[in-house]
Amino acid sequence: MDIWDQMYQEAKRVQNNRTISPFIEAGGVSAAVLTKEGNIYVGVCIDTASTLGMCAERNAIASMITHGEHRIDKVLAIMPDGRAGAPCGACREFMMQLDKDSGNIEVLLDYDEKKTVTLRELMPNWWGDDRF
After folding, report:
1. At CA 53, angle to CA 55 and CA 126, rounded to 5?
2. Is residue 75 very low, low, confident or very high in pLDDT (cuts 50, 70, 90)?
3. Fewer CB atoms < 10 Å away: N or C end of the chain?
4. What pTM does this model have?
C-alpha cells in the first residue's frame, strides 16, 4: 500500500458524517496529514450554526501540533462523495504559515489518478514569504 492509500484509509476511517446536536454536524469531510517525521494525523470537519466550526484539514493539523509536530509533507481531504478535494483558502493559508517550506507540501487532488500539486501552486505569490 502506498502512502496515499494509507492516508486515504486513515481519513476514511474517521469520516462518518454525523449530527452532534441541532447546531453541529461533523464528519462530512475528513482529512489526513503526513508529517515530515512520517506520522499521520487525521481530522473531520465540524460544521456549526454560528460559523465557529473547523475544517477537517485544520482539525488534523491541530492534532499534529498537539503532538509536537508542525512540518507537513503531504495532505489529503476526502469530500462527502469519497473523492479527494483541495483544501479551502483558510486551510491553505494556515498551512503556509506553519513553516518556511510549506509551499512544498504535496496536496492530493485526485485519489484514483494520484494527481497532486504543491501548496505553492495553490498559493502563488504568497504574502508571507519574506517574513520567514
Report:
1. 45
2. very high
3. N
4. 0.95
